[in-house]
Known about the structure:
Elements (H helix, E strand, L loop, with lengths): L9 H30 L4 H19 L3 H15 L3 H24 L1 H11 L4 H14 L3 H16 L3 H25 L3 H23 L12 H4 L2 H32 L4 H38 L2 H37 L3 H33 L3 H26 L1 H28 L8
Amino acid sequence: MRDATSQVSHRRVLNIALPIVLANITVPLLGIVDTGVVGQLGAAAPIGAVGIGATILSTFYWAFGFLRMGTVGMTGQARGAGDSDEVAALLTRALLIGIGGGVLLILLQWPIIALSFRVAPASPEVETLAAGYVAIRIWSAPAAIALYGITGWLIAQERTRAVLILQIWMNGLNILLDLWFVLGLGWGVNGVAIATFLAEWSGLALGLWLCRPVFGEPGWRNWPRIFDRARWRYILTLNSDILVRSLLLEAIFVSFLFLGARYGDVTLAANQVLKQFVIVLAFALDGFAFAAEALIGQAVGAKDRAMLRRSAILSSGWALAVSVLMAAVIAVFGMELVETMTKSVEVQNTARIYLIYVALAAIPGCIAFMLDGIFIGATRSRDMRNMMAVSFLVYLLSLAVFLPIFGNHGLWISLLVSSVARSVSLGVKYPALEASAQPAKSK
């Protein structure tokens, strides 16, 4: 009889994916409220300060995003191998990395602020308000980064409902405190920062409580295992590969933003509006990518090739169905959605020209997204890094060819080409990934 963990069904995939999709809905809602409450102050500077301050922190926090991805793959594999002590030790390692990274950012806060405003200067009033915002929120960096590890660990346990509870608590509390501190007490930009500071530390406390069963086992404080040099070398290699891959992917989207600016404010605004559709698609696919990460990790740990293949097929099948549906919605109702996002007729007319690229990007974007999840679960970080490097070079070549000829069309074509390159390059590596998971031996 096969072990229960090897039974992969549509219901199991959806049980992992849907809570993440619901959790993601709360993320843009928080940003809307943050902007809305400071908008009630009647000045532009507070809005800009909150936006810039949040961007500065999210950029530096994002550098530790590898912690979530790496933790899912390693924990899933340990679970699949039946190594409960390593599962517990991985949580402790993730917490140590997260807290250590947060403390490092606190120590470097003033150079971070100075560098950020040197790269992206603003008015003196905005810079002063934003610096105050960062100086408050940076003190919750250990909690915010440690939560990456907790989230990854919970996903690997298929406990995505716990992740949903965590997100609803943190973002819900943040919203309530925003309203109280800013509109009720009149604390302005600092009130928004204090609200997030309290929400993130309370989120860490709740996250630890949700992980409480593991603290009843000895593995979480087995210090010789936790500080084993070979395991730390593996973690550092894995996470550095993921970091390089993520930096290259971010470089594509950042360059898309900056290169679009050369075609004028209207085109830049249209690109930004349409980019929101891409972000929404990513949010929708997140849950299925997380399902792939958790299930693939277990399959690799169990050396169960059949489970790996079924996990990849079912999770990707659901993701592809969602992508096709969203592509159809964008193609049919895209302009109605654009018109709700901007009242500028010029921006609307420009967005109409480039809307087709968003619909076309849905399928290759989905394939690339899901292959990322599959390779993360298998901890094939070197393949991810190398194929992302290849895709980035293809993107640069595409820019060199199409941008001078087609302008902003060339920019969108290059973004589409980059998704196709990611899909093809990782797809070529998939057979080797599957071959690495040998069928489990029957007893």
